[in-house]
Specification:
alpha/beta; Rossmann fold; seven-stranded mixed sheet
């Protein structure tokens, strides 16, 4: 069981953004991606190849990739885990940011997507050491050598609380966990109104779990989908 920080049952809302500023839009995102480094040809090949094969259009954006890459470097990560790999787009962003000799363990439930990801990740330049585990992540995470330095969670949402608990037990001190889709498609505050309420409830549970767990110092990065981030203390 995670150790929880005692909190009052209710809080005065307070000013979240007293200036009321809302500057971020598609043109700003385009500028930021170009400024900090757009995807290269290999990343484009993975993204377009995934689309051509009919994989779900749910991969992270190039800007999300930049954020993940920065977090991996901030963690000085050599061992990373990605839960939910799809076609390997986000995995490549993560792997390239690892320290020399780094290892990435990826988990993908779909065989075709896992094989596509592995095919492209083994072509990475510079070369990376990667293992793509096929099947339900909860059945295979026990095979990961721990402690790890970075964990990215972007798989079946109803298991987010379980994945987060695994990360809490498996990260070293100073390691980082990141949960994608943390805004629950805009329904984090009212998950019952989400198109998939069970998934939205699980995301909210994981977000609150991360926020209240003494094992983490955590916050939210307001990407388009929401990225909840915690540093293991």
């Amino acid at each position: 069981m995670s150790e929880q920080v005692p909190r009052p049952k209710s809080r005065p809302p307070g000013p979240v953004n007293p200036k009321g500023a809302r500057y971020f839009d598609a043109s700003m995102e385009e500028f930021c991606v170009g400024c900090f480094g757009p995807e290269d040809a290999h990343l484009t090949t993975i993204r377009e190849g995934s689309k051509a094969l009919g994989f779900p259009p749910i991969a992270i954006t190039p800007m999300d990739g930049q954020v993940l890459s920065t977090l991996v470097v901030a963690a000085n990560a050599r061992r990373a885990v990605e839960i939910g790999t799809l076609g390997g787009y986000s995995a490549l962003w993560i792997a390239r940011a690892l320290q020399p000799g780094g290892v990435l363990d990826c988990f993908e439930i779909d065989v075709d997507r896992a094989q596509f990801a592995l095919e492209h990740l083994t072509k990475a330049v510079p070369p990376i050491t990667v293992a793509v585990h096929i099947g339900p992540a909860l059945d295979h995470l026990r095979h990961v050598l721990t402690p790890v330095d970075f964990v990215f969670i972007d798989a079946d949402k109803e298991n987010y609380p379980n994945y987060l608990e695994w990360a809490a037990k498996s990260l070293r001190s100073g390691g980082i966990v990141a949960l994608d889709n943390a805004f629950a498609w805009g329904h984090l505050r009212e998950p019952d109104k989400a198109p998939r309420p069970a998934e939205a409830h699980a995301i909210r549970q994981a977000v609150e779990q991360l926020a209240n767990d003494k094992r983490f110092r955590a916050s939210m990065i307001p990407t388009n989908e929401g990225l909840a981030v915690g540093v293991r203390v």
